[in-house]
Design goal:
By secondary structure, this protein is of the alpha+beta class. 36% of the residues lie in helices and 14% in strands. It is built from 18 helices and 16 strands.
């Protein structure tokens, strides 16, 4: 019996020996950058084939239509079709094809060669910039180009004239003032929108040197690291004000208070002074009941700014009007935020303001019952303090005489202390007699512009006057009070009662320490 031939080691039963055939296929030879495609004439006609090369040298067959295809008789399947790039999960976007290891990295050229949404966004941004450039006016000064679409064209022209020196007259260099403003550190800290507000405000009066000086002073008064909201609101107020109000507003902004910017001072409810001033500056009209009695919108802002800028310029009056003047002076001097809050609510509908507790001033109801005429001294705030006295002394009603003793000469310390408790939200106490007065004054801290303030009354021939207590020295007693339009200098004398002027800007005066025993009537001070 013949022997079966042995199979080679490693072979399996039933396995067939496969013969690799040489099939007619395309042969691609890739060089360093440009690929070369060779075809054999036996299989394709070159008449209807077209090969397109990308800018990045990546071949792409745009259309290949063979006219005749010959297959080997032993071949029963076609070559697999070319793979298409996979789509990403994001609709409308395609993943970039990885660059070959030995070829250059693929870099998108035109925007439309980027992935879908990125290309559309880039194209839209370019179109937007081109359209914006077409609308931009021709700006001569490079520093003004960012404001071409933020400032009125007329104002932009005035600014160009100021910066080019065309407005320099009578030896005043408007160009130097304008350039100094725009090159300052305070101006550089502003945002683009804040700069546009400031420049738009000064443009109508750009020919005046005072305009650029006031704008520079306002920027210098703003805190370098302060709140951006307060800074922006301050510039909005400056732009909303008439030019005649700028000196008062700038003087107010530069006034020191509590070692912090005065425009950030807060009222008893936490509102900022700058917010109340903005509301008053943008107030369109007053209630009819107020306008019928002689007060206008422009008068309100003038009175508030002038009083807060120089509280000592409040009119100096006697008797009950003098007590109201002292209370108003104390508010404007130590609590400008609360002072502006009272004004804002009393001249706006519904003409009412609330205090700590349940007390409330309703000016509209009071005006219905009385015939009041408003003026520079008889303001809605003064009338509101009258109503406050009526809450304290209901029997006597809301009258100014409620702050006086029944004889009409001395200060009713009980009514004044209760009124102060409502105004400042803290309890006040009264001390009478030299020993009690010295003891109470010794408990008051020596702090300028303390809140809430303390008050002292001084007797003189024919009456008693109320002062804001400042401090107690070794030989002098220092007090503050309004002096009206008086322009007395340091060292001048005042009468009723006799005292010496220390600082006329703050209304600071002094009197001998002996007044504590002889002429000081009472001390009204907060207990907290």
């Amino acid at each position: 019996m013949a022997q079966t031939p042995r199979r080679p080691k490693g072979s399996s039963t039933g396995a067939r020996r496969r013969v690799r055939r040489q099939e007619p296929t395309e042969r691609v030879r890739v060089k360093a950058k440009a690929p070369l495609i060779e075809r054999k004439d036996d299989f394709f006609d070159e008449g209807e084939s077209e090969t397109v090369l990308h800018e990045d040298a990546t071949p792409k067959i745009k259309a290949t239509v063979p006219t005749s295809v010959f297959f080997d008789e032993d071949r029963t399947e076609l070559a697999p079709p070319p793979r298409r790039p996979k789509r990403s999960s994001t609709r409308g976007e395609r993943k970039l094809k990885a660059a070959p290891a030995n070829g250059p990295a693929a870099k998108p050229g035109r925007p439309m060669q980027m992935p879908g949404t990125e290309a559309a966004a880039a194209l839209a941004a370019r179109v937007k910039v081109e359209r914006l450039a077409e609308r931009l006016p021709n700006v001569r000064i490079p520093a003004l180009r960012p404001f071409a679409v933020l400032i009125d064209p007329k104002h932009l022209t005035r600014l160009e004239e100021a910066l080019s020196g065309e407005l320099d007259v009578r030896g005043a260099s408007i160009r130097d003032l304008a350039t100094g403003l725009m090159q300052g550190q305070a101006y550089s800290s502003l945002t683009l929108e804040e700069r546009a507000v400031l420049l738009g405000a000064v443009a109508p009066t750009a020919e005046r040197a005072e305009t650029w000086k006031l704008a520079t002073q306002l920027l210098d008064a703003m805190p370098k690291g302060g709140k951006r909201g307060a800074r922006s609101r301050s510039l909005d107020i400056f732009a909303a004000l008439d030019a005649r109000h700028w000196p008062s507003f700038v003087e107010l902004a530069t006034r020191p208070l509590h070692r912090r910017p005065i425009l950030e001072d807060q009222d008893l409810e936490g509102g900022a002074l700058v917010d109340h001033l903005y509301s008053l500056a943008t107030l369109e009209k007053l209630p009819a009941e107020i306008e019928e009695r002689g007060l206008r919108v422009r008068d309100v802002l003038t009175l508030v700014l002038a009083t807060l800028a120089k509280p000592a310029r409040i009119a100096l009056e006697e008797s009950a009007d003098g007590i109201l003047a002292a209370l108003e002076f104390g508010l404007a001097e130590t609590s400008p935020g609360e002072y502006a809050r009272l004004w804002r609510h009393l001249v706006s509908a519904p003409m009412a303001v609330s205090f700590a507790g349940d007390q409330r001033i309703e000016l509209d109801q009071h005006l219905e019952k009385t015939d009041v005429a408003f003026s520079g001294t008889n303001t809605p705030l003064r009338v509101g303090l009258e109503i406050l006295a009526g809450h304290i002394r209901p029997r006597r009603g809301p009258t100014r005489t409620a702050f006086l003793m029944p004889g009409g000469q001395g200060v009713d310390a009980d009514v004044v202390s209760r009124a102060l408790s409502l105004l400042y939200g803290v309890p006040y106490a009264v001390a009478a007699g030299p020993a009690a007065i010295s003891r109470m004054l010794g408990t008051i801290r020596r702090e300028p512009d303390r809140v809430p303030p303390a008050f002292v009354s001084v007797l003189y021939d024919g009456g008693e006057r109320l002062f804001v207590f400042d401090r107690k020295g070794a030989t002098r007693l220092f007090v503050r009070s309004p002096h009206g339009a008086s322009s007395k200098s340091k060292g001048s004398d005042r009468q009723r009662p006799p005292r010496e002027v220390e600082d006329p800007a703050r209304g600071l005066e002094s009197m001998p320490i002996e007044y504590l025993e002889a002429q000081v009537g009472v001390v009204i001070a907060p207990t907290t």
